[in-house]
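We modelled the chain as a single entity of 335 amino acids. Its sequence is:
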Amino acid sequence: MLKYLRASAAICLLASPVFAEGFGLGRPALPEEIAAWDLDVSPDGTGLPPGSGDVLTGEEVFADQCAACHGDFAEGVDNWPKLAGGWDTLADEDPLKTVGSYWPHLSTAWDYVNRSMPFGAAQTLEPDDVYAIVAYILYSNDLVDEDFVLSQDNLAEFGMPNADGFIVDDRIETEFSRWVGEPCMTDCKDTVEVTMRAMVLDVTPEEDVVEEAAAPAPEEEVVEVVALDPALVEAGEKVFRKCKSCHQIGEGAKNRTGPLLTGIVGSPAGAVEGFRYSKALMAMAEEGLVWDEASLAAFLAKPKSFMKGTKMAFAGLKKEEDLAAINAYLASFSQ
């Protein structure tokens, strides 16, 4: 073992600048090599390239480049990081630190996405794509509206919610004197025992299921079954791919991040057994909201506008044909 330690020490010594010059190890970096590494972006916007990106474009790019790990709505997949949520958890024992809840500067998000993402293909994104992705992350955190456009002109001016949650690290001036000198090594404890653990082993919340809103007793009526266009249903199945990360539908469907959607067309809102709905949805359910074709189209076009406070982070479907198709697909599981 000693000879390996000596060999390692010799290698480290020879790699130092003084010996590198004498032994010809390495060479000065070329200007283009330095430029390739010089990608950092400062909070004041220094280092940002020209470009811009809007939320809706960001949703599409995020779905293609990021959703496999971070979920379609930045909610995280398995153990991959969540990028949205956690606004009121920073004082908890197990805080959720996301771009929206924790990060003090938006430049950090832009710099990290540009430098390191997507996983396995870092630095393959164009600047406009990075701006669009970051805009969508902001939208997923309810920090901007769906028409927001992020660019090099407004990024540095964007204030993050936790910007004031950080302080300057002045320990070198205020505490350094306590770290130096000889260790005490007196009055030590006789025994050592573990009193706390750093890792939270059980993070599954124990929540009581919110009572469902009582659906109004329907009046007897003749239900007319409308034949669905098979081509439209098939198109809706493709659109439903945007929903699969949170919702299931069909035989054996279960509640996930969102409720199962089997039989949703024509059903009262908030009626899926065992799912914990948002207060916003439950309020509208108590007012008699029914998921018919019109209400579904309005909700899926602009969820946050239709229902203020909804937990669904989906940005919405922009195209009328997509709304018609998803309605037909959902209706096909109600007949």
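As a brief sanity check on the tokenised model: The two ends are 74 Å apart (CA to CA). The longest helix spans residues 127-140.
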